[in-house]
């Protein structure tokens, strides 16, 4: 059965083009599921809807709703694959219900907090020039942190003011950036990055102090430190500037579809969470500023 899982993983990679993180999570979920079936002397080809429901019920004590939902998705996708390959005639997971996940509003920085954060790096140093360029570009484009740290030199078009990135599912998109990010990038590329280079010619845009590609964890430490230095009380997470990018665009009148394209969301319902943030902000402004709140 594990050979079948390997075939399924290849299917997810080649035909579905899912992100590596999703594929890894699905693989772990399915190994856990098959291990559970083995304890009951059942194979996936002989299982039933009730057995699958019993298994999913066993996850409720140890996994979050989001992880439970992902397990349901992995199992449903796996059994659809088995049916499509002719290994099963009927799909026992077809009618499984996905646990409802409470929609959590993202933490969004105010415009003043963004300014405070972006002004923290010391741009008289190579690392400060790098940090300023990263923060400016992240806020200007709304890239995911993983997309930011994997940018290559060839992905940035300074003349046109666009950055090219590969998002989830290896889907390519072009995102514009403005003058502030452009100037920060030019300073970093002319002064900061050459000073960080040790040897060789790494293709990546942002380098650590060793001249290697910067990791996601490295960026998380950078943004957290600058947030602390700026005196921002909110807990700044890696996606904080991405959330702020989307929320501030919508508050300024950008249409939802355009924001969806720039964020690289496959489904516009994912982008709609930011409209809730915007409505919450408008409500606060109304209560604060209206003469009859």
Describe the structure.
With 293 residues, the chain is mainly α. The protein has two domains: 2-84, Tyrosine recombinase, N-terminal domain (DNA polymerase, domain 1, Orthogonal Bundle); 111-289, hpI Integrase, Chain A (Orthogonal Bundle), CATH 1.10.443.10. Helix content is 57%, strand content 4%. It has a three-stranded antiparallel beta sheet with strand order 1-2-3. Strand 1 and strand 2 form a beta hairpin.
Largest sheet: 3 strands, antiparallel
**Which geometry do the CA atoms define?**
globular
CATH superfamily of the largest domain: Intergrase catalytic core
* Low-pLDDT segments, ≥5 res: none
CATH domain class name of the largest domain:
Mainly Alpha
Number of alpha- plus pi-helical segments: 13
Q: What letter string, H or E per element, gives the SSE order?
A: HHHHHHHEEEHHHHHH
Number of strands: 3
Q: What is the radius of gyration?
A: 23 Å
Which structural category fits the helices and strands? mainly alpha
Which band does the percent of strand residues land in?
A: under 5%
Count of distinct structural domains: 2
Examine the secondary-structure arrangement and name the CATH architecture of the largest domain.
Orthogonal Bundle
* Euclidean distance between termini CA atoms: 64 Å
Instruction: State mean pLDDT (0 to 100 scale).
Output: 87
Specify the helix fraction band.
Answer: 55-70%
CATH topology of the largest domain: hpI Integrase, Chain A
- For the biggest β-sheet, the strand order reads 1-2-3
């Amino acid at each position: 059965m594990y050979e079948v899982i390997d075939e399924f993983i290849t299917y997810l990679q080649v035909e579905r083009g899912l992100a590596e993180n999703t594929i890894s999570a699905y693989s772990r979920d399915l190994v856990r599921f098959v291990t559970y079936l083995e304890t009951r002397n059942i194979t996936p080809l002989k299982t039933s809807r009730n057995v699958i429901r019993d298994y999913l019920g066993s996850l409720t004590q140890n996994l979050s709703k989001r992880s439970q939902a992902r397990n349901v998705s992995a199992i449903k996708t796996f059994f659809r694959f088995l049916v499509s390959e002719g290994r099963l005639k009927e799909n026992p997971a077809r009618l499984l219900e996905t646990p409802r996940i409470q929609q959590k509003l993202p933490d969004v920085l105010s415009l003043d907090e963004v300014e405070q954060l972006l002004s923290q790096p010391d741009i008289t140093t190579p690392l400060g020039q790098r940090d300023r360029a990263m923060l400016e570009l992240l806020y200007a484009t709304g890239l995911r942190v993983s997309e930011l740290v994997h940018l290559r030199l060839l992905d940035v078009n300074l003349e046109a003011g666009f950055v090219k990135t590969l998002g989830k599912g290896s889907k390519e998109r072009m995102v514009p950036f403005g003058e502030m990010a452009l100037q920060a990038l030019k300073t970093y590329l002319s002064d900061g990055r050459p000073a960080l280079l040790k040897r060789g010619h790494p293709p990546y845009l942002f380098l650590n102090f060793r001249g290697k590609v910067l990791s996601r964890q490295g960026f998380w430490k950078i943004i957290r430190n600058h947030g602390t230095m700026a005196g921002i009380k909110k807990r700044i997470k890696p996606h904080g500037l991405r959330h702020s990018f989307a929320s501030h665009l919508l508050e300024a009148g950008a249409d939802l579809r355009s924001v969806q394209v720039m964020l690289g969301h496959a489904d516009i319902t994912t982008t709609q969470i930011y409209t809730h943030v915007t409505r919450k902000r408008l409500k606060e402004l109304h209560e604060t500023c209206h003469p009859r709140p």
